[in-house]
Fold:
Amino acid sequence: MVNSEDIKINVGLSLKELRTNKGLTQEELAEEVGLQPNTIAKIEVGKIYITSKTLAKFCNFFQVSPTIFYTPKVYLNIQENLDYIQEINELLPSCNSKTLNAVRNVAVIMQSSQ
Structure:
């Protein structure tokens, strides 16, 4: 069952992942989106919830859909990812163009939700 604390934590984890992937400190992100650094810190640890206005700032800054903040993350270890990539690379040459297009569409959706 989902509760509001789980949502706050997921939003915070998503924000932290986006921020660190972009190589930003909390202070730098705060400056970019017009918030206080301590506000960023509190969001990232799930202590406070964000308003729709703040959500829009994050989405526009990171160029992501709002759903990325609310979709639970599944973290796979790096070796599993490499194994999956290898398996996909082995399977792709045998696919027809319709299947390749379907795989591409799924990959695009998955990438935009990360």
